[in-house]
Write a structure and sequence with these properties.
The complex is a heterodimer of chains A (about 280) and B (about 450). With about 280 residues, chain A is of the alpha/beta class. Chain A has a single domain, classed as 3-Layer(aba) Sandwich (Rossmann fold). Chain A has helices at about 5-15, 65-70, 110-115, 120-125, 130-145, 160-175, 190-205, 220-225, 240-245, 245-255, 260-275; strands at about 25-35, 35-45, 50-55, 80, 95-100, 180, 210-215, 225-230, 235-240. In chain A, helix 5 (about 130-145) packs across helix 6 (about 160-175) and helix 6 packs parallel to helix 7 (about 190-205). Chain B has about 450 residues and is mainly α. In chain B, strands 1-2 form a two-stranded antiparallel sheet. Classes of the chains: A alpha/beta (about 280), B mainly alpha (about 450). Chains A and B meet through strand 5 and helix 4 of A and helix 7, helix 8 and helix 10 of B.
Chain lengths: ~280, ~450
């Protein structure tokens, strides 16, 4: 893979018009800075529809910021973001955001069902209270992530993995076409990881697109279809089997890629090669 | 002092209404971790109030309200600006803005007081004692001038709470997700801040701009300790605030009498003290987060564990034919575990009372139920020992202590999982037999009785 490979691909997809109208998320020339210090530089990206996409990169690479900037949660210096060819304000109903688990106060006096029901607020609009219909939808979403028995639990009484699943259920209730998730697999137990993966695969079957900030390089190959490798700028982006290479990882992580990660990568590729034979 | 109708009843009504009005924005301030914002706003409205006086020249509340609301919003916005662009930590930004506003307000107020009939002390500490004298007539009824103001603010806050309940909830819990799903978080926050500022102004005549923060935050903090459900927390903070206000006035008229010649004390001050007292009670006695409950919980757990240890000891003593008296068991528990004499005594008494052990020639023997329970326990213990020895590479003389802890949290399904994973020799690393999963079926307690 050469330097220009993924970038060239990204711009080819967007040829003709500025943005690809089929792409659920299309980013053009986006720069984000905190206190004038740039965090993301000149990001161009067209996320393909109906795929499980992960964003990987070292700490401070701007992975979370990328999601937040797309949703207008942090100010941008420049850049044009389109969801299916339109601005975010017209597409909020079709996009769900799952923030990092640490970003909220889990001592807040609400139970799991209350939190999941928050997914219905956007569509309900001002003043209208949560009704039977919304509560039913919330219960069904909790069912899908396997937490139906814990819906009355105050949220601090849930394990980290269960809290993460509550967040996923809240996104499911919104019934969006695009999921933007910030580290959904961060410090969760094995059963939660499997439950989240299962739901994500169901979503892909249903033609939905999922974009995850991800930190575990070893599961990229088995869990995702498409990968964005980010370190302040997009180092590479494309289908996992083409793009997720040791060379690109080295370029993304600089010297910070640990020996262990490299070994795991090599093992993963050996496995895949073995399967193909 | 004695109760005076037409004075003391009005004072309590006004105090309770101020507490009700404060509890609503106060609860959300607390939940958003912005309790000090309440303090900041209650101080920052001061210049607004003073300017209101200067412009109108009277104590007419409408001008004060406008001035205070403008000042409150300015302070909130300036704090944000300073935080974001001045690169100042939020608490420091608040400190800078609200002390400056407060100082300006104080200077203006002293200036104003020369021209208008206004006592700066009233603004700072409240003048609830004087409220029943300062009457207005509305619809043919005499009432304290602050009464209609408080009625309006109570209705306004309650109305906003009912209308914007879910918006306030989501913006307090997860503002990023709220914004992403299309909720106008900025607007909701501004409404909340204006609500807080308006409440501070409405209440400042009653409890003063300094003590209003006690009514904003302390009842909410106490309520939060009492419940884990937001609607209940809101209702409790209304109730706790009202009780504190009522008790505060009762204390203000009664407590000075206890100290002989003290003529009077500040009702507003007493109200704030009472919120503190109620908070202390909540902290001690709350159902789940209370100190007392937690201590009780810990004791119960210790007694349960000590009882199980005692039962296990009886089992072991029968197993090696030593036969122990109750005193032996208590001594052994005290010397080999961390519990004290009292808990050991309670534990032995409890297993006897529950019919798990009997006495035969003053030595402890197991009843049928006791034998069943003790075998389960010993089975857990020895399964753990075997498992730790075989799978966790612990030395045989190290596994006892670990198993001692784990046996108390092992249920039937975990026991069967352990049993499936260890070699089926039926003995533990110390060579003693592991009781079967159906102990009563293979011989019953008689087999083990001395």
């Amino acid at each position: 893979m050469t330097n220009q490979g993924p970038r060239a691909r990204a711009s080819r997809v967007g040829q003709g018009s500025e943005h690809d109208h089929r792409s659920p998320l299309s980013i053009h020339d986006m720069t984000v800075a905190y206190d004038r210090k740039p965090v993301l530089w000149d990001v161009d990206l067209d996320v393909p529809a109906g795929q499980l996409v992960c964003i990987v990169g070292p700490n401070g690479a701007g992975k979370s910021t990328l999601l937040k900037a797309c949703l207008d949660l942090v100010p941008k210096v420049s850049g044009d973001i389109r969801f299916w060819g339109k601005g975010i304000s017209r597409q909020r109903g079709k996009v769900a955001y799952v923030p990092q688990r640490e970003s909220v106060d889990w001592d807040f006096p609400v139970n799991a069902l209350d939190v999941v029901a928050m997914g219905t607020y956007g569509k309900l609009g001002w003043f209208k209270p949560v009704g039977t219909k919304q509560r039913k939808a919330a219960r069904e979403a909790l069912d899908r992530v396997g937490l139906q028995d814990l819906m009355d639990r105050q949220i601090s009484q849930l394990s980290g993995g269960q809290q993460q699943r509550v967040f996923l259920a809240r996104a499911l209730v919104q019934n969006p076409d695009l999921y933007l998730m910030d580290e959904p697999f961060a410090s969760v137990d094995a059963s939660t990881e499997q439950a989240i993966l299962d739901v994500m695969r169901q979503l892909r079957e249903a033609g939905r697109t999922v974009v995850c900030v991800h930190h575990d390089l070893q599961t990229v190959r088995e869990s995702f279809d498409w990968v964005v490798m980010l370190n302040m700028r997009v180092v590479a982006a494309g289908p996992v089997e083409e793009i997720f290479t040791i060379e690109n990882l080295k370029r993304t992580y600089g010297g910070r890629l640990t020996l262990l990660d490299q070994a795991a990568m090599a093992l993963g590729r050996a496995h895949q090669a073995g399967e193909r034979v | 002092m004695t109760w005076m109708w037409g004075v003391d009843d009005w004072i309590i009504i006004l105090g309770v209404m101020a507490a009700l009005a404060c509890a609503i924005p106060g609860t959300f301030l607390l939940l958003r971790g912005m309790s000090m914002m309440g303090d900041a706003i209650s101080h920052a409205v001061l210049p607004g109030i003073a300017i209101g006086f200067l412009i109108s020249g009277t104590r007419d509340s409408s001008w004060m309200f406008i001035g205070a609301a403008v000042a409150g919003v300015c302070a909130a916005v300036l704090t944000q600006v300073l935080h974001r662009f001045g690169r100042l930590e939020r608490g420091a930004a608040m400190g800078v803005i609200f002390t400056t506003f407060f100082a300006v307000g104080l200077v203006l107020l002293v200036q104003t007081a020369d021209h208008v009939d206004l006592d700066p002390n009233c603004v700072l500490y409240g003048a609830i004692e004087l409220a029943p004298i300062d009457l207005v007539t509305i619809a043919g009824l005499d009432m304290p001038r602050s009464f209609p103001v408080l009625v309006v603010i109570c209705i306004l806050n309650l109305g906003l709470l009912l209308l914007l309940y879910k918006e306030l909830k989501i913006c307090s819990f997860d503002p990023a997700m709220a914004r992403a799903s299309g909720v106008n978080v900025t607007l909701v926050n501004q409404i909340h801040m204006i609500m807080t500022a308006a409440t501070c102004v409405a209440c400042f005549e009653v409890v003063g701009s300094i003590l209003v923060v006690a009514l904003l935050v302390v009842p909410a903090a106490a309520a939060r300790l009492m419940s884990d459900r937001l609607p209940i927390v809101l209702i409790l903070s209304l109730v706790i605030g009202s009780i504190a206000a009522s008790l505060g006035h009762l204390a203000a008229i009664n407590v000075p009498g206890w100290f002989g010649d003290v003529p009077e004390t500040s009702t507003a001050g007493m109200m704030a003290v009472m919120t503190g007292v109620l908070f202390l009670l909540a902290w001690l006695l709350a159902p789940r987060h209370g100190l007392f409950t937690q201590i009780l919980h810990r004791w119960r757990l210790r007694i349960r564990i000590a009882s199980e240890d005692a039962l296990g000891l009886v089992f072991r003593s029968i197993e090696n034919d030593s036969g122990m008296t109750r005193i032996d068991i208590r001594r052994t528990i005290v010397s080999f575990t961390e519990v004290g004499v009292v808990i050991a005594w309670i534990a032995v008494r409890r297993i006897r009372r529950d019919g798990l052990i009997d006495l035969k020639d003053n030595r402890c023997v197991l009843t049928e139920e006791g034998y069943r329970r003790a075998s389960e326990l010993i089975r857990s213990h020895r399964l753990w020992e075997a498992w730790l020895w075989q799978h966790a590479d612990l030395a045989a003389d190290h596994v006892h202590g670990q198993a001692m802890r784990l046996e108390h949290v092992t249920d039937r399904s975990m026991r069967e999982k352990l049993a499936a994973q260890i070699d089926a020799t039926g003995i533990d690393p110390h060579g003693r037999p592991i009781p079967s999963s159906n102990p009563v079926g293979d011989g019953g307690p008689e087999r083990s009785r001395p």
